[in-house]
Amino acid sequence: MEFKKNILCIGAGYVGGPTMAVIALKCPGYRIEVVDISAERIRRWNSDSIPIFEPGLDEIVKQVRGKNLFFSTEIEKGIKNADIIFVSVNTPTKTFGEGAGMASDLQYWEKTAHEIVEFSRGDKIIVEKSTLPVRTAEAMERILKVGNRGRRFEVLSNPEFLAEGSAVADLLEPDRVLIGAHQTPGGKRAEKELVDIYAHWVPREKIITTNLWSSELSKLVANAFLAQRISSVNAISALCEKADADISDIAYAVGSDSRVGPKFLNASVGFGGSCFKKDILNLVYICKTYGLTEVADYWEMVVKMNDYQKRRFVQRMIKEMFNTVAEKKIALFGFAFKANTGDTRESPAIYVTRKLLEERAFVSITDPQALKNAKEDLRGIDDRVTYEPDPYKAAEDAYAIAVLTEWDEYEHLDFERIYQSMKKPAFIFDGRNILDHKKLHEIGFNVYPIGKTSFTHFD
Ligand code: NAD
Ligand code: UGA
Description:
Blueprint lengths: L4 E6 L5 H11 L3 E6 L3 H7 L11 H8 L4 E4 L2 H7 L2 E4 L19 H13 L4 E5 L7 H11 L6 E5 L9 H6 L4 E5 L3 H14 L8 E5 H32 L3 H9 L20 H14 L3 H28 L8 E5 L14 H11 L3 E5 L4 H7 L7 E3 L3 H5 L4 E4 L11 H7 L5 E4 L6 H7 L2 E4 L10
Parallel strand pairs: 1-2, 1-4, 2-3, 4-5, 5-6, 7-8, 9-10, 9-12, 10-11, 12-13, 13-14
Helix pairs in contact: 1-3, 5-6, 9-11, 9-12, 11-12, 12-13
The protein binds nicotinamide-adenine-dinucleotide and uridine-5'-diphosphate-glucuronic acid (UGA).
């Protein structure tokens, strides 16, 4: 079949894989290839067990793979053949040198820029899909210009707003698609090519076009605003526990104001995931670089509040269990950073486990999707850890359960049975406020939700 255009995506991760699968589904006239340096990842994308768990993704990949969606490690060939190249490589927080712990580590991203220059034969549109510091496109253009040998590269910014666990739904029905381009004839032509792709399924009024720098910065700001809501509600949850107020009632009352809105106001053990912390710290670093100390401090507090919430959660567990968890078995229900994903990057569960192990507890971890990643995260420190797919077994002989991920199935467990199998007094620390706290109390548990009065059997 003759394809209208060849699209290449460099980086077959949580963003590259699902995004390209949906573009392939919606744009059968385009040939899409996803490449990665990880041969293992590509092997899995080509197998029956794709490398990420994302509801609905399996079916889409099966439908389009081998038709207009291809996964390969042939980066050089892919670049040569492509008209449009999405760059979707990882941009983690730098762990070394200047800006360590805050700035983005752009080494993977820069490497792709050099590869594009080296292997390109004709003109290309380069699309920044990764989340990048503002004005990164400028650096990309400089690298591309140095070796361009008469070829034209037009750089666009097209940040991704999907959330894990709902990636397919987010991609099929996005709130908006954002495209940043140079406001030049060449930039506008490239912008139109990308708009045309998304317009296959996204209503035109939801496709926002801006200049490059607004688009790059909007992505960091969007994540900072979302995380800020969680830190705001979590800060108030600490006050609720002191004042006998209920954080769910407060979130409902406050969120009912249409200027605030109801979403993203669930108090929790803290936000996790590969991006919130990294993107806010990156924003903080950029502000510091521009000498905007107050702005930097303001946003940094969102991350500090999140650290406080995680710390507070474990400290409360230890305090309520008579100031010691040494030699006690504690069951953790959930290890993924949120439900419907196996991803554990920056999951609060990692912090909670480490702290409990430091206190010499035995930790039994259960999770429907994340046990493999949990083992990786705890490698070398897990001689007191067991990994147990069955939550009933995980809770056997435990002194306490801590709910760390809001998996639906935890709401439907037989807690009477679980209570019978546990040591007494039995504790539940609900880090996601998903359980029926009154009922658990009636069964016999001492129950500690987030930002609500606890239900105990002690005087
Ligand atoms: P990821 O780590 O899952 O995937 C990145 C992939 O890029 C890896 O498979 C890696 O092997 C590959 N890679 C690195 N350098 C390469 C190179 N030179 N050539 C080919 N492949 C290379 O990361 P991710 O979660 O998909 O995130 C990618 C970007 O998207 C990040 O900037 C992130 O901030 C952003 N983002 C992520 C999400 C999310 O939900 N995970 C959502 C929106 C935006
Ligand atoms: C987030 C954003 O929601 C996406 O728009 C963005 O594209 C993505 O980051 C990114 O740039 O990587 P994600 O991290 O996948 O998506 O998941 P979220 O649903 O945002 O949850 C993040 C964390 O916040 C989770 O640990 C979740 O449990 C927690 N959370 C979320 C709360 O504690 N309370 C809430 O009310 C909502």
